[in-house]
Amino acid sequence: MSAGMQPPGRRPGVGVGVVVTSYKHPRCVLLGKRKGSFGAGSFQLPGGHLEFGETWEECARRETWEEAALRLENVRFASVVNSFVEKENYHYVTILMKGEVDRTQDPEPKNVEPEKNESWEWVPWEEFPPPDQLFWALRCLKEQGYDPFIEELSHLEGYKGNHLRAL
What we know:
By secondary structure, this protein is an alpha+beta fold. The protein contains 2 helices and 7 strands, in the order E-E-E-E-H-E-E-E-H. The strands form 2 sheets. Strands 4-1-6-5 form a 4-stranded mixed sheet, sandwiched between helices. Strands 3-2-7 form a 3-stranded antiparallel sheet, with helices on one face. The protein is globular, with a radius of gyration of 16 Å. The chain starts with 12 loop residues before the first strand and ends in a 23-residue tail after the last helix.
């Protein structure tokens, strides 16, 4: 659907996903399994809607606390993805942030929202589930070639925001 054909008032959602790492779990990222209407059964990062007036960092910290009871430090930009799945009437621009579990706090997640998430687990980045089992923003992030253990943004070179249009 082109921008000119879009019904008035329809806009993509804006979300923030958080790639959470921990000194207690080297080369692992925090993953949960979604419950609910969109993407039920797929693996996800902590995250949610960007609130009005909120910075990306504030959203990353808030969502990680609300969903997994983890405090973060060293929160920074990781990537951005544009996920559009027409058959699901789903269109989100997701800002991906990276944060490390605060070393002064308990490093183990708690499933604070069991109605939305089955559980949280530390999963090695190299052993992630296959792409078709990842929620859309995380799938796009992996397809970009992002590596949370390399501090560079080369995975964004040439990215034009066209992920998942055909699904």
